[in-house]
């Protein structure tokens, strides 16, 4: 699984950054970066007020 950020929906509020238990998300200027320490726990997707983050299966 991987976290995908919809940049057209994201309001860059940073809520996802604050809830990530491993610090895999970073608010970099006007976008969210997800690094390879992401465990796909889904906390970021649950907290996002506009539904901009999504867990997807990567094949």
Any overview of this molecule?
With 59 residues, the protein is of the alpha+beta class. 17% of the residues lie in helices and 27% in strands. The chain has 2 helices and 4 strands; from the N terminus they run βαββαβ. The strands form 2 sheets. It has a two-stranded antiparallel sheet with strand order 1-4. Strands 2-3 form a two-stranded antiparallel ribbon. The longest helix has 5 residues, at 15-19. The model has no long low-confidence stretch (mean pLDDT 93).
Write the layout of secondary structure elements.
Blueprint: E1 2-5, H1 15-19, E2 25-28, E3 31-34, H2 43-47, E4 53-56
Antiparallel strand pairs: 1-4, 2-3
- Largest β sheet strand count, sense and barrel closure: 2 strands, antiparallel
The CA-CA distance between the termini, in Å, is: 9 Å
Mean pLDDT: 93
Our estimate of the beta-strand percent is 25-35%
Number of strands: 4
Radius of gyration (CA) equals: 10 Å
Overall morphology: globular
**Major sheet: order of its strands?**
1-4
N-to-C series of helices and strands: EHEEHE
Query: What would you call the structural class?
Result: alpha+beta
Helices, by number, come to: 2
Percent of residues in helices comes to 10-25%
